[in-house]
Write a structure and sequence with these properties.
The chain contains two helices and no strands. It is mainly alpha-helical.
Length: 66
């Protein structure tokens, strides 16, 4: 895409595809460097632990900042 704003817009709206016939299993994610993928994987692992420790609270991963 031509700008990072367009990328962010597409990624934000990608979750809406789940409600469309034929797109229920489509997943769109941003391109990441190897270091960013490692950092994200670590965040996902921490999120899973938090969900187990505190199941009544919703946790989200918003953004990885380098």
């Amino acid at each position: 895409l031509s700008s990072s704003d367009m990328v962010q817009n597409v990624l934000r709206k990608a979750r809406l595809l789940r409600g469309k016939e034929g797109y229920k299993i489509v997943y769109i994610c941003p391109d990441r460097t190897v270091d960013e993928r490692r950092a994200y994987k670590k965040l996902v692992a921490e999120l899973k632990v938090k969900k187990i420790e505190e199941p009544d609270i919703k946790f989200f991963i918003i953004k990885i900042v380098k």
